[in-house]
Amino acid sequence: MMYTLSLWIFGLLLIDPTGVLGLHHFPENYVMAKRGNSVTLTCNTNFDGPFTWKFAANTVDEAEEIEDFNTIYKQVGKNLIVSDVDSPALGEYSCWSGEERLSSTFLLVEAEEGNNFDSLMKCWAKSYDCTFSCNWAKGLYTAVRLGLGDDCSEGRKSCHWVNSSGQHLNGGFQFELSHSLSPYAEETNMLVLTAEAIINHNILRRTKRFYLRDIIQPESPQIVNCQEMEQELNVTIDPPSTWSSPHSFFSLEHEIQYKLKDDGSPSVLIPKKISMLRVRSRDPLVLSNWSQWTPWKNVTY
């Protein structure tokens, strides 16, 4: 049985600060290591014949064999030990039998402490139903994915990752996630949300724990009618269509802001003669985030 260590590295033609040359998806197989540590890669195959290890970065140039590979790499059976992990050694490693690729894996380095997690990602739920949304802020990251539960926070293969459902208007990533919490039961368990993000060959992994009630933010309510009474204005407001039902159980409180016909300044009181008003809502039981304001509505008599 013979294995050949033939490692190739491609020279860097262009350093792209936007990460365009980096990974735009999560590889099916990858290993994350700390910078400066050693890591073991495995040729995942049942093939018993001779095979060759190869390495390629994400850029193209004439291939040059690494002359000092014995100081960086050591092969033990089907394993390849990479010592002193750093940028030149990051990328895709594959094992080959002739022209047949047997398996491959990416070697990525753990990203150093960067931006605060809360500044990178914001999550909110329109209601207590089984879904919530998250946005990952625009930045240099080229691939992001999220996962719920301990399987994801502990990096298990059984984790069900959710990829971005598209790009956010501001250039970031957006996600729709599902949970199994009952909207009618008292919330005792926190959601465990793990995010992984890639920039070039660096991978960031962060975990955040929170209650669903902490991210509740209703959509804007609906101003149905404004009826003039003797001494006041009666405003009829309906919950947003996305809010949990029945509304007798999932109540909302509303805040009305208006402009006087004479001076146009906002006020917390509601006199009879106003020119415009708008409304926002929140869950009064958990003091959730306020919804966005409705557009200003003209009041006519």
UniProtKB/TrEMBL annotation:
Superkingdom of this protein's organism: Eukaryota
An annotated GO cellular component: extracellular space
Signal peptide residues on this chain, from the entry's feature table: 1-22
All residue ranges annotated as the Immunoglobulin-like beta-sandwich domain in the record: 33-95
Pfam families on file: ig, IL12p40_C
Residues covered by the Interleukin-12 beta central domain: 119-198
Keywords: Cytokine, Disulfide bond, Glycoprotein, Immunoglobulin domain, Secreted, Signal
Membership in a protein family: Belongs to the IL-12B family.
Name of protein: Interleukin-12 subunit beta
Species of provenance: Seriola lalandi dorsalis
